[in-house]
Amino acid sequence: MVKILDVDTSKLAKHVECQRGYEGYEKYGVAMNVDHLRNSVNIDDANQGSAIKLKQVAPCINEYSKAPSGHKATTNWNIFRSSVIESKWTNSEDGNGKFYNLTVLEKHPYSTQTFVPMGRLSDEDAYIVNVAPDKDGQPDYEKVESYVFKGNTAVTYNVNTWHSPMVVLGKTTDFCVVTNENDVDEENCVEVFYNPGIKIHVRGL
For every residue of 71-106, which 3-state class applies, written as one string? Predict the structure, then answer.
């Protein structure tokens, strides 16, 4: 990971409301959840009728042929163990939820990235996904969007999509992660930092 910019957000007055449900996230990638996707993808019976297969729900894209170094990338499974950073959370003054202080957005210029949560209950709030559109090669941080993801939902980020590092809710959570990587740090991941940060309001916590 390579930091490319520091941004002063001290004059940013508004906060971001974290939404429940995955509608709208398709601009940034795929919320991989059976009930969310089953009406929009092809489905086959599988395993002698004991399963259904939702086909090609998310891509695994490798665009390292466009990278300046010309170094080849491999498709890798990694494991992330993500912990709650208590210092980034404050209680809402009205008692409805909490605020998360978002201080970094990153992107992977030449690869998709998919996180699959492990060990969380299917219906519990497991993590939040914070994303932003691109504006001239940088995050348009005034248009950050945020989504609560359940324990039965994986997330795919599109190539070149600005997103925060994983923000888990309630407890340390392991993720299986599939992405493409080469040996050039700035071609794998670049970061933009925000000070004092961007407030994300998560209701219902």
Answer: CCCEEEEEEEEECCCHHHEEECCCCCCEEEEEEEEE
Q: Does residue 57 contact residue 44 with C-beta atoms inside 8 Å?
A: no
Averaged confidence pLDDT in the chain: 96
3-class SS of residue 189: coil
* Per-residue pLDDT, 4: 87
The set of residues, in sequence order, having a beta carbon less than 8 Å from that of 156 and lying 6+ positions away, is 29, 30, 32, 58, 59, 112, 113, 114
Amino acid symbol at 59: P
Of 57, 67, 1, residue with least CA distance to 29: 57
pLDDT digits (tens, 9 = 90+) for 156-182: 999 999 999 999 999 999 999 999 999
Q: How far is CA 175 from CA 83, 171, 178, in A?
A: 11, 13, 10
